[in-house]
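Worked example

This section walks through a single chain of length 238. The input is the sequence exactly as stored; nothing has been trimmed or padded.
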Amino acid sequence: MQPIRTLIIDDEPLAREILESHAAQIPDLEVLASCANALEANEIVQSEEIDLIFLDIQMPQISGLDWLKSLRNPPLVIFSTAFSEYAVEGFELNAVDYLLKPIAFDRFLKAVNKAKEQLKARRPESMSSEHYMFVKADKKLVKVSFDDIVYIEGLKDYVIIRLEQDRVITLQTMKSLEAKMPSTLFKRIHRSYIVNIQKIQALDGSMIEVTLKNQTKLLPIGKNYRDEVLEIIQQNRI
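Given that input, the structure is written out below as C-alpha cells.
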C-alpha cells in the first residue's frame, strides 16, 4: 500500500510526541508535519496532499471541529481529545475514529487500520494501471504522463519531475511520489534520483545516461541501488 501521508494537529507538545512515537512504529504512516494549531496546519493542507489527520478538538484560536467544517474536501480524520462529550459531533463529521487521551498504542493501531480500509476504497489498486498521475504544483493539480517522465530528482522538501520538454516542481517527498508510480516502469537508482527505465540510453560505470532536450544527462547510481540497476540492465541485454 502507498504511504499514508499524515498530519498531526494538537496544541499540547506531549500529546504530539505520543502520536509521533506511535506513528513511527507503523511503516505505512508518513508524518509530513506536526502542528500546534489548526491555522498552522491550514497552510500545509492547502499545499500538500494529506491522506489522514490526527486532530485535537479543544485548541486556541479555532477548534478542531470548526476548522474541519471549513475544509471543502477534508482528508480522513481521527480525533484525539481528552473530552468524550465531543464524540457524537465528531462522528457526524464522518471521523474515522475518536481516540481519548492518554492514547495507548493498541488503540492507535486499531484506528489506523480503520483508516487504511477507507483509503483502499478511495484509491483502489486499479489506479496503478493508469498511464498518468496528478501532482500538486503551482497551487493546482497537474497531470503528468508517465511516458513523458525522463527522471525525477529529489531536492530537500520538494522534487523536480524532469519531462522530455519541460519540468514540474512539487512539494513532497521522493518516497511518497515513488509510491504513486508503477514499479515496472520506474526505478530508484539513488537516494535523490528515480529514472524511467525506458529512457535509459546507456550504462557508463556508476552512471546512467539519459537524453533530455537532445542533450545527454548523466545520473549517479547509489551503491545501495547498484545491484538492482545492474539486474535490470542484464535482463534486457542481448
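What to look for: Residues 124-129 have pLDDT under 50 and may be disordered.
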